[in-house]
Amino acid sequence: MAEANRTVRLKVDGWSNPRFGRIESNLIAFEVMWFGCACSTCFARLDAVKNRMKGSEVKWQVRDIMIPERVVMPSATLMVEPKEMPERVDSYLSDLLGLQIREIA
């Protein structure tokens, strides 16, 4: 079981910058885009994640959240409530979103 309330750095294949994730009791937060960038590529990624989630049976929402490691601007963050907290968040998000995601140090 993943321990509660921890921040992780996640690398998504094909995305240049790492993203932050947060595990809290029954929620997984995954930073999709930082509004400080807000380029068309990032907005396309956000749309792709939302479209993928529309077919999911998992409770989810996208929220604008200030991530302590980023400054000034919030990030569009996918909040997911898995039926059961997975052993590995990176594998879970990979399967859920159809992306190759791995946790990095």
Condensed summary:
Helix content is 23%, strand content 37%.
Structure description:
The chain has 105 residues and is α+β, with helices and mostly antiparallel strands. The protein has one domain (6-104). The chain is 23% helix and 37% strand. The chain has two helices and six strands, in the order βββαββαβ. The protein has helices at 40-54, 89-97, and strands at 6-12, 19-24, 27-34, 59-65, 75-81, 101-104. The chain has a six-stranded antiparallel beta sheet with strand order 4-5-3-2-1-6. The longest helix is centred in the middle third of the chain and has 15 residues, at 40-54. It is globular, with a radius of gyration of 13 Å. The protein starts with 5 loop residues before the first strand and ends with a strand.
Structural descriptors:
single chain, 105 residues, alpha+beta, six-stranded antiparallel β-sheet, 6 strands, 23% helix, 37% strand
